[in-house]
Amino acid sequence: MTGNTGRTRGTGPAGRRPGSAPVAAVLAGAGALALVFTAWLATDLAGREPLPGRPLSEPLPTYVSMLADVTARLSALVALGCVLAIVVVAERGLLTGSEPVARLRRWAGRAGQAWFWAALLGTVANPAYVNGLGLGVLLAPAQWWQFQTSTPSSLAWLLFALAALGVVLVTYRSVHRAAYALAYGAGVLMWTFVMVTGNVSVGHDHDWATDGAGLLGLVVVPLLTGAVAVALTPPGRGAAAESRVRGYHRLVLPLVGCGLAAQAVVAWQQLAGAAPSQVLYGLAVNGAVGALVLLAAAAVVRQLRGWWRPASLLPDLVAAVAFVAVQTAEAHIPSPRFFQPQSTQINYLGYEVPDPPVVATLVG
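Above: the chain sequence. Below: its structure as tokens.
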């Protein structure tokens, strides 16, 4: 029922439901702090001496790579959260023409576009930062393509950008729930691909670290985007909103437990025996653990208070943004493992193969 203002009862300006305003404010505020933190860290890293093997490093690629990284991940968090919310509210496999669904599609499309352009910029800035090159080198099409086809981290960012493009196309062109579910799954997988490249693919035992990072991505990314989805999903009747919060809540502690175990493996390999409080890389380790602990603490408080409204997920959204920011930090801060000597076999495998790979060795 509408009045003279043309607004639907129970909604705010332009049909926005009241519950979406706090969610948008928390995401925007936490996202702004994440950008400030990333810029501060980039300033610190850019002012340090070039790393071994990167004598031609410049400050600019550090800034561009880190800001593109965090922007892409934050945008992916929102876009995938909106896409998952659309999957939840779609009926009989088709999207309804309601304003809440249309709003979710608009948000997913806009966030997806930011995700796409930031990730595409990452295909230039990330290899420039990792290899100590100027941005101009990677802007040459031949050089750019060579890095995409020869380095996993560059390829990961390209596929991450293509996943974003898929989300945008689905958001603006499709009304089928299956298409949104497929776009969501592709986004989660490509985000995880980004997480298993970079620091975790360097040094002794990096086979363990990449496995840990892969598990971390597969359990934490759905959890974080799930928090965004439930917070943004049109509530409908009170019982429906409570049911969605409870469904998300039941997953938090098991997935956080898996995430902490995976993070412990990554930290063990990357710290190489150093204490987190002694090295800058410890900032990423402590930040990731802190974000996961905040998710668990919010779940415990929610259980004790019996608070099942979508507003109870606001701390989860803060934790999600914080986790994204420290993931960007983890990908750019040189870990203690980086400075450890390594052979060609360790570089590619993560371990030494003492015997030659001949038939007699394989048979024996």
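The mean pLDDT is 85.
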